[in-house]
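Dear colleague,

Thank you for sharing your sequence with our group. We've completed the structure prediction you requested, and as agreed, I am returning the results in plain text so they can be pasted directly into your records. Please verify that the sequence below matches your submission; if there's any discrepancy, let me know and we will rerun it promptly.
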Amino acid sequence: GYGGYPNNNVAGGLVNSLTKVAEGYSKSELHEKIKTGAIPIPTDSSKPAPMLQMPKWGEQLSASEIDALVAYLFTLGPKGGKPSADDF
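Please find the predicted structure tokens below.
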């Protein structure tokens, strides 16, 4: 969940970390994103689409498994509960 890996044609040029999902999504929003996947919004439509995308997991994981994953992701956060300079 650290993030920071390069990804072309996305804001910041990097894959986001998972340490702040609780700040950016409700549990139901995150459940839906895991279920249906996500394609990053390109910063320049004339360039190739971002190479790294979040796959949809709704066909591989049951709703209860996704709920368990969401619960786990909501426990992640920066040490001490405060964002660090490395967080997006």
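Summary note from our side: The radius of gyration is 14 Å.

Kind regards,
the structure core
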